[in-house]
Write a structure and sequence with these properties.
Elements: E1 2-4, H1 13-24, H2 28-39, H3 43-67, H4 74-79, H5 83-111, H6 116-135, H7 140-162, H8 164-173, H9 177-181, H10 184-193, H11 202-207, H12 215-242, E2 247-248, E3 251-252, H13 260-274, H14 293-297, H15 301-322, H16 324-337, H17 339-377, H18 395-411, H19 415-439, H20 447-470, H21 472-494, H22 510-515, E4 527-531, H23 535-548, E5 551-559, H24 577-593, E6 597-604, H25 607-617, E7 622-626, H26 632-638, H27 641-648, E8 654-658
Parallel strand pairs: 1-6, 4-5, 4-7, 5-6, 7-8
Antiparallel strand pairs: 2-3
Helix pairs in contact: 1-7, 1-12, 2-3, 2-12, 2-15, 3-12, 5-6, 5-17, 5-18, 5-19, 5-21, 6-17, 6-18, 7-17, 8-12, 13-15, 15-16, 16-17, 17-18, 19-20, 19-21, 23-24, 25-27
Amino acid sequence: MLTTESRPRTLRWVHAGPLLYGDWGTSRLYVLGLAFLYTGHASIIYLAAIGLLMLAVSWAYTHICRCFPDGGGVYTAARQLSPTLSVIGSTLLLSGYIMTAAISVIEAFHYFHVPHHYVLPCAVVSIILIGGVNWLGAKSAGKFALIIALVALGVSAAMSLIAIPQFVTGIETISFDYFRENSPSSAWVNFTKICLALAGVEAVANMTGLMKQPVEKEAKKTIWPVSTEVVALNLLFGLALAGLAFTVAGTPMKEIHTPDEHRLVESREAFVESLPPDQRSGWDTSLPIELEPEEIGVLQPIAKQSYDHMVEHQSQVDQYTNAAMRVIAESTASDMFGSTFGHLMGNIAGITFGLLLLSATNTAIMAMVSVFYAMAHDKELPKKFTALNYSGVPWFGLVVSVIIPIGVILVEQNVTVLASLYVLGVTGAITVTVLSSAINRELELTLLTRVFFWLLGLFLLSITVTIAITQPVSTAFSGTLVALALGVRTIRSVAPKDTGAKIEAPSMGWLNLLQSLPTKVDPDKPKIMLAARGRYQSEFAVDLAKRRGATLMGLYVRVVRVMDLQPGMAPRIETDDTALETLGTTAMLAKEAGVPFIPIYVVSQGIADEILDYTTTYMCDTLIMGKSRRSSVARRLEGDVLSMVAKDLPDGVMLMTRAAETPHAMMPPGMEDREAKD
């Protein structure tokens, strides 16, 4: 019996780079606005500092990819030291992915300029649709991500040229007053708030199992262009944002000297002061203030004016924090070419970056599925998370990965709050990866490299600890997930084990039957490949092979659509009940008919490629396939396997198709060719 769990290494840096950019590059779409919100015209200094950290992390991940060429990241790096640590690290990563999906889908509709009251329903529907597309195992989602990433690069390049005047103005506005007016501890805390710019780097470690050899070379070519672009354009657009004439609370952004985080508090305090003395207590001016229509209606004129000013101020801040790149595109293009072109450029940027954010949501959801699958495969989560649907997608994990982000955005849609929930998971996962690599003596790292790993890991640890202390909401969110994961792990470890006898399959058991078959192929006999499932298909193939005196081969392709599938994690024939029954049924029929039968079990992401590969490798002259029972939508998204095989099948190989529900009747001699279809 032939089995395999390897996947072809077809991913080149030219494809991996856009995939990484589609994840890592999206952080720019909200980090720029948050940096200006917190630090004003000191934001460029913060962006430069975070850029240096991103380059250091990029360097570290080139080594991590080299050390884990079959799939790395926090789960693999930590598991080599401790299974418990791997659960903690992967759960932190999971919390990051959850918030990535939530914040990206909300931000997408901010970039689309969807009215506020429609953002939530549109976001929920989008997540459900993304889950539906992935349920079908659609490879087209990955192609869509590549196209959008490339378009986003083009739009960013055009924006960078248009924004040159604002870039120059932004340089002139750089101020160090923030550091004189705020304590070092406050400055450090605000730095940790924008460390979510690191989000997405773990994606490259998850790709190494698919990268062409040598992985080290491909990983470097993947990481460095993306990180360089992200850091450089973060600085460029950060300066452009600071140099905009876009007005916030009556002041152009280029003239704002106090960060809007503080100015908003002043606007709220001014509103509270405008109220009658007996109504001024009980207001929390550190949070947005929203009144009901009937409450607004009874305000005095002065209070109403102050309230309107506060609401307008918050709305303008929301514009540049929720959709900074759209604001930059529209404002810079308006200054250079007029308001009509500016509006057009804003729409182009909004649509492009909105689609990029939806692509990031898709990536985050499938990354969650991968984490669930890996943990369940190692028995850290219930086995149900490894159950695959027809398309090879872990369906239960996908359902959970769709439900959780929806639950998050139903509770909270504020980007600033979501970002605060997000940052601990991001930095925590990267910290665990880097420190685990530094500690692991089995990894091939030079002494100097290991020292730098330690220094970087400890610096990241200080960031993570700061976030855990200063952002209790983020700590509560990530901490709750970690506690749940460890709790499930503990319960599963102490649960009583089932020691009862297993129910045996018919006769000697499917596995024993398959293992007893000879694997030698007679080169003088014609060979028939059966790539279809069902009793009737097996009966037809066995009958045909008997009439022709041929060797029958049965191919079962177990499709697995998981982003990070490492060696040893792939499904095995021993535990794949459906495959055992399918191949075993054919084996039993072949044995009764005296037909030589060779079962083949392979794990792959593509059915058509494997069918073509094995059919041509074993020089089969006939291929039997079943007619697709999938819906037209599924075939359109995923591609019709039968059509793809027929298109590339070599000349001289006869393709025969049959419906699985068609009973097989013994054919008179010479009739078999009439069922053949080219």
